[in-house]
Amino acid sequence: MKSLVNTIALAVAFAAPVAAFAQADQQPLTRAEVKAQLKQLEAVGYNPAVATDATYPADIQAAEARVAAQNATGYGSPSGGTSQTGTNAPMANPTMPAPSNSQ
């Protein structure tokens, strides 16, 4: 029983630094990065000077969505969630005659 407790303690001791290291790459933003983000938001119509408590969450989120749409690269699959299944239809080649079923 004592060896089981020692094994568990040893496993936890080895796992703890790995969990801490996984979050080490998240650095805070620099002042220049924050200013660049604010300029992007202002470019799509967000004005922090006229934001009120009643409209703050909605208007900043809408501006962030517009910035994200502008920054979209077009790579990857769309997030619409639709898909098609089945077999592929054979493509017709205009330079070759269609295959016949007669043998």
Task: Please tell me about this protein's structure.
The chain is mainly alpha-helical and 103 residues long. The chain has a domain at 2-69. It contains 3 helices and no strands. The model has no long low-confidence stretch (mean pLDDT 74).
Element layout with pairings:
Elements: H1 2-22, H2 31-43, H3 56-70
Describe the structure in brief.
It contains three helices and no strands. With 103 residues, it is an all-alpha fold.
Please report the total strand number as a whole number. 0
Distance between the termini: 77 Å
- Tally of individual helices: 3
**Whole-angstrom Rg:** 28 Å
Shape: flat
Order of helices and strands: HHH
Proportion of residues in extended strands? under 5%
Helix content: 40-55%
Question: What structural category arises from helix and sheet content?
Answer: mainly alpha
Q: What's the rounded overall pLDDT mean?
A: 74
Uncertain stretches:
none
Largest sheet: none
Which properties best describe this structure?
mainly alpha, flat, 3 helices
